[in-house]
Design brief:
This protein has helices at residues 21-38, 62-74, 101-119, 143-153, 187-207, 213-224, 231-234, 327-331, 340-350; strands spanning 10-17, 50-58, 79-89, 93-98, 128-129, 134-138, 159-164, 168-172, 182-186, 275-280, 285-287, 297-299, 302-303, 332-337. The protein is an alpha+beta fold and 353 residues long. The protein starts with 9 loop residues before the first strand and ends with a helix. The relative contact order is 0.13.
């Protein structure tokens, strides 16, 4: 008696960035005008977006990919994306050009490093990472639609700017059919929930001796509205760290990365103890020359910080030492050792002597 063998479900996925609503509405009006003029049905399909990766994969891989994307999104600094005029892919697509490409290309490279293996279905279905970011106005154009449309739009002007701080992962169940897309992940929700959870945890530690369980529940419901995460959910984060990965050092020609090419297995990043590295320094006092900082001197006895503020401007300085601005910034603290005489001289400088 033979048993039926079920074929694993496969879906199509699209990882993208969405512009803010008012800019998106303006682009939608442009797409509608293009359709009215050239009767191109593809111009009316989909919301304006900037594609990062498109891939086909077994749905059983979805949870692991989403988990990785959550980790990457936690490290995503806001990107300023500038749009300027129109471009085209002869002879089938007209789009709005993205002039600030380097930041998006770096993001795509980061995603490729951490997720390429998981996104690969087989040798014939590899993920497509977008290296020329753009926002499509119309695609799959007929020759006459492209020729007339590009003749008009190549002389038109457009400008726009938005700040991208999140990614959206869309899924379509039947890649070969014209089915609808639906949202699998919006990293904005992950970042907001994580921030609210951290705020609640800090407030709970401060108020623990003086609040009752009833007060705690009311505080959580009225002010934060965050459910207490289960231990299983918290295991995907490195506790006590702002960054969750080591980002690429822009000054290093070569780098060491972990990647499962066949996407057979995954790994957990160990939460290593903080390492303190002593470094001889001439002084720990720095002269501040920036006009927008209201001080003449600053004292910095360390490079790196366990507070782990993800937006800290000092993270990039860690790359000068050959480390990463991500986890290395929090786990490898450089201690600036100085002689007493240097400290005395620094004190004299601060006192104006």
């Amino acid at each position: 008696m033979s048993a039926d063998i079920k074929t694993p479900a496969v879906a199509e996925y699209l990882l993208l960035i969405e512009p803010r609503k008012d800019l998106s509405d303006a682009i939608i009006n442009i797409k509608k005008a293009f359709y009215d003029q050239y009767k191109a049905p593809e111009a009316l399909k989909g919301k304006p977006h900037l594609t990062l990766v498109s891939y086909v994969q077994y749905t059983s891989f979805e949870s692991r990919i989403v988990q990785k994307l959550r980790t990457v999104s936690m490290q995503l600094s806001p990107l300023a994306i500038d749009l300027q005029d129109y471009g085209s892919f002869p002879s089938h697509t007209i789009f709005i050009q993205v002039v600030s490409r380097s930041a998006i290309q770096n993001l795509v490279r980061n995603i490729r490093t951490h997720l390429q293996g998981l996104m690969k279905l087989d040798k014939d279905n590899k993920p497509h990472f977008i290296t020329e970011p753009h926002i499509t106005i119309a695609r799959k154009l007929k020759p006459w639609q492209y020729e007339q449309g590009w003749l008009a739009y190549s002389h038109q002007q457009f400008s726009g700017r938005f700040i991208a701080s999140s990614m959206v992962l869309l899924k379509r169940e039947s890649p070969d059919q014209n089915t609808s897309w639906f949202i699998v992940l919006n990293s904005r929700d992950c970042r907001s929930a994580r921030l609210r959870q951290c705020c609640f945890s800090q407030m709970k530690n401060i108020c623990e001796p003086i609040i009752t369980n009833r007060d705690e529940q009311k505080l959580q419901q009225d002010h934060f509205k965050v459910a207490i995460s289960s231990k299983k959910e918290e295991q995907q984060y490195l506790q006590g760290r702002g960054a969750q990965i080591n980002t690429r050092n822009r000054f290093l020609k070569d780098e060491r990365v972990k990647e499962h090419v066949e996407a057979i297995d995954d790994w957990d990043e160990p939460n290593l103890a903080t390492q303190y590295i002593e470094q001889e320094a001439k002084t720990i006092v720095n002269k501040v020359e920036s006009p927008d900082v209201g001080m003449a001197y600053s004292m910095n006895a360390y490079a790196g910080c366990e507070h782990g503020c993800i937006y800290c401007y000092a993270r990039n300085v860690h790359e000068y030492w050959g480390y990463s601005a991500g986890l290395d910034f929090e786990r490898k603290i450089i201690v600036k050792k100085t002689r007493p005489s240097y400290c005395v001289n620094s004190s004299c400088i601060l006192n104006g002597k």
